[in-house]
Each structure stands twice: as structure tokens, then as C-alpha cells.
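INFO  loader      accepted 1 record
INFO  loader      residues=312
INFO  predictor   begin
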Amino acid sequence: MSSETLTQTGMASRTTRRSRPKPDLPLGKQLLYQAILLLIAFIVVFPIMWVVSLSLDPRNISRPTELDLIPPGASLAAYQKVLDKPTANPVTFGQLSFNSMKLGFGVALFSVLVGVSAAYVFSRFDIKGRRFLMLAVLGVLMLPSIGTIAPLFVMLNKVQIGPSPADTLRNSLLGVGLAITSGALPFAIWNLKGYLDTIPRDLEEAGLIDGASRNQVFVRIILPLAMPALAVTGFLGFLTGWTEFALSWQFLTNPGDFTLTMSLWNMTGQYADSTPWSSFAAMSLLVAAPVAIVYLLLQKYIVSGLTIGSVK
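INFO  predictor   done
INFO  writer      dumping C-alpha cells
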């Protein structure tokens, strides 16, 4: 047998060994892994199921006394009460949701638009002071958002947007949105910049050779390829604006501008027994539902963006 035949035979045997499926795990390991996964699933799902049970409980109990996930006399009265009038303030649930929606989608939109523009400049252009600017953005990202309340309060309070001296940018949803966006932009820039670095420059050069302008290359080539990272950044921006509480609580004084998280806090009493826990649980689930819906709509892009490495 020639050496060439022996070489081919060896390669074929190695290919056969590589393509051979791995043996299944032993039954004991399978049972152990499944038990661990079931335990993790129970730890994650049970608190949510308990909140659902609490929202259906008409007894308005303040602490669990039994493990019945379907309480006796379960009803949707708490949901009806929350949707009618969550708190003593004369603000409907629809108006509160609209205010939170404006903050959520506004922060998501501006953080993505401004963030991807700045990230593209940092990723593709060798501008003077580029390293210093990136470190400055990183420094803002490391600063806790709660620490910026005082300077933002003073700065926005000096900008008057209405006829009355009390009509300042601080006491408005626009001012709160700008404050939240300023905290969301550093993450958006770094997140998108890391993703844009993975897009080959050859694609842009090919577009420029074909006669496209720099703006056309950015809009028609870069943005479609960066859609997973844009989805991740937009979702996290929406989550930040939707669930934000500290800035809204410190800045807003007009009940017509209150958000869902502010009303959820207003439902708590001084003591545990004075809190309507069934309504509180129902309100919590209604506040969390839009976030879950947005995630499901963007799940395809978010998962691909996370797996490719846009969030590290």
C-alpha cells in the first residue's frame, strides 16, 4: 500500500472519529442536571407567581401565610381598581402610562441616535483627543446616576420654558428625559462603539468606491449591520426610562406629569398593614408587562446582539 493511500486512510479515519456523535450523558448526570435546572427555574418563577397570586387575593394580606398560588375567592378587583384610579392623585392609569411611555421611548430613541453617531466617529475617525474623549465618556459611565441629581436639579431649574417662573425644564417630563438620556448615553456610546469595531471597513470602502457618500454608507450599510446592537441599546434605554424613579421623584411636582413608578411608590403606606398589597402587586405586574412585551418584540435582535459580543 502506497504512502498516499495510507495518508488518505488516516485522514478518513480521523474525519470519521470527528464526525462521530458524542455519547449521551449517564442517567445519573442527566437527572442531576435536570434537578438543578428545575431548582433554578423554581427560584426564578415562584416569586413572580406569588406576586400574581397576591394580586388576585381579595384579603389584602401583608405577608404570605400559605403556599396556595390560587387564593380563595380570587378576583380581578385589584386590577380594576388600579386601572380606574391607582392612587389618591387625580391621575388616571392611562395618563401615567403615557408619561412613562414618553420617557421610555424618548430615552431609547435619543440614546440610540446620538449614541450610534458618536460611536461611529470614535470607531472610524482618528480625531485629535479621541482617547481622552473616550476615557471622559467612560468616567461619566462609572459615575453613579444618583450622584448627578444635585447638579442636574440646579442646571435644569435655571431654564424657564413657560410664562410662570415655576415652569422650568426641571419641572417637566422633557427635563427628566434629558437628565435620564445624559446618563444613558455613555453606555450607549461604548456599547455601540465596541460593536461597530467588529464591522469590516472593507464594506464601507466598497460602498465609497461605488459612488456612495459617507452619509449613505453610514445609513445604508452600517446601520443595517448594527441592528442587533441598536436593538440592545434601545431596549436598555427604554428600560432605563420606563423604570426610572429617583430623578422623576426629585424633579416633578405636577401630578399630571407623574409616572407609573412614582404612583407605585405612592401606593405604599407608612406601615406594612397600611399598604394595599393586592393593588400594589397588580400595579407591579402592569408596570412590568410593557418591558416584557418590548423584549419579546426585539428578542431576535437582542439575542443575536448579545451572542455576537456587543455587550461585554
